[in-house]
Specification:
By secondary structure, this protein is of the alpha/beta class. It is built from 16 helices and 15 strands. The longest helix has 18 residues, at 381-398.
């Protein structure tokens, strides 16, 4: 098939960015002719399996769901754009796509603005709904909800990553036909358990290769001096908790910090966002902040963490972080809600019965989180190994990228 894959942002860092590049890679490896449309300035840094990349000329105005920094862009929230600005953005992207027609399929991320862009091409299209546009921009905004509903009317399929997002989609835009649940995927060849010595050595090597970031001037680059800091901090096999994701209050890192004050463990916090300064101010002892890290770092860091916590207090489309952790040998412990609960259920189904409650905790309940962290840290080595094997088995069977990519191209009635 010839596939035009539209994504309005970058190809690294956040969930939908990773989703896009992973699909491009898997579809290309599967023999499809894939062209990616994104605002990524350095696509050569990513393995896209041979897919080509086009950067549409959008005139510098970039609509987003969360205010982040994008070099050279005027970043505005989708809901703050005027109707004319939205229409110009859609027209510019649709023009770029139409220049590469004919194609067998246009596949667009995000109900808005991906849905309107795909619909404007006049081609056959499918849309992937993510939680970000639905929760951060469209919920409570009748204009955007109507626009999204109208743009989905012509799609031959709409994909959601979990039953939770299926419910959110209907709640935000109203009833939509042809909705299919296909979870995001995990690169089970990249995220694998590693011996501690190998993982630490390779993590340090990846950090040495990081671009310079004097004074941590760029929040989108790893922190200065990470190689030395990580080598010192992770010396010795002590109980270690990892958090990686955006540093926003909605992500619940403060709940994890409250729990860690009651647990003898160290923590590594990976990510960027407007809540970082507050989190650094309130962090418990033995907490290391690294700034954002790429998959090349995380694939080495995750095996060094006994537990990866996902304490979000806001609905999540899917627990990608937890699935990646499970694949790489770090036991996931997530807040029991939305798409995170579906990950917890999938992993716990593979656990021995006496450990099945150790994949999730009550949202916002730091004492319960602390209790489960203590139980996980108290596991004997053979018990831990059993759970690690079970968690990876859950990911391989349910959430590999190869299977996800195939399902997104299946014919539907």
């Amino acid at each position: 098939m010839r596939i035009l894959l539209w994504h309005g942002y970058l190809l690294g860092g956040t969930g939908s960015n990773v989703y896009t590049r992973s699909l491009a890679r898997e579809w290309s490896r599967g023999g499809h002719d894939v062209t990616v449309f994104a605002q990524e300035p350095h696509p050569e840094e990513y393995d896209l399996g041979g897919a080509s990349v086009v950067r549409p000329d959008i005139g510098g105005l970039l609509p987003t769901f969360v205010l982040d920094e994008y070099e050279g862009m005027d970043v505005r929230l989708v809901q703050d754009l005027t109707a004319d600005e939205r229409e110009r953005y859609v027209a510019a992207n649709a023009e770029a796509l139409r220049a590469h027609l004919p194609a067998d399929l246009v596949f667009a991320n995000h109900v808005v603005l991906g849905g309107p862009v795909a619909a404007a091409t006049g081609a056959r299209y499918r849309v992937k709904a993510h939680g970000s546009e639905l929760e951060y921009s469209m919920r409570g905004n009748e204009d955007l909800s109507r626009w999204g509903r109208e743009s989905l009317a012509g799609a031959e399929a709409i994909f959601v990553g979990s039953e939770h997002i299926r419910e959110v989609l209907e709640d935000v835009v109203g009833h939509v036909d042809r909705v299919h649940v296909v979870p995001p995927g995990v690169d089970i060849d990249e995220f694998v358990p590693l011996p501690r010595e190998e993982a630490l050595r390779d993590l340090i090597a990846e950090s040495v290769a990081d671009p310079a970031n004097p004074g941590n001037a760029s929040e989108r680059l790893p922190d200065e001096g990470n190689a030395e800091r990580l080598e010192t901090f992770l010396a010795g096999d002590e109980p270690t908790v990892l958090y990686f994701g955006k540093l926003l209050r909605n992500k619940g890192v403060h709940v994890l910090f409250d729990a860690l004050r009651e647990v003898d463990a160290r923590a590594v916090v990976v990510g960027f966002g407007d809540y970082r300064e507050e989190l650094e101010r309130t962090a418990p002892p033995r907490t290391l902040f690294t700034g954002p890290l790429e998959h090349r770092h995380l694939a080495k860091l995750i095996p060094l963490a006994h537990v990866t916590a996902v304490p979000s207090i806001f609905p999540e489309a899917f627990g990608m972080v937890a699935a990646e952790a499970a694949a790489a040998g770090s036991l996931p412990l997530v807040a029991n809600h939305s798409g995170l609960a579906e990950i917890a259920a999938g992993v716990s189904a593979e656990y021995p019965e006496q450990y099945r409650d150790l994949t999730s905790f009550t949202t916002g309940d730091s004492p319960k989180l602390a209790e489960k962290l203590r139980r996980l840290f108290a596991l004997e080595p053979d018990e831990r190994a059993r759970l690690q094997e079970a968690a990876r088995r859950a990911v391989v069977e349910r959430w590999s990228w190869a299977g996800v990519a195939r399902r997104l191209l299946e014919p539907f009635n």
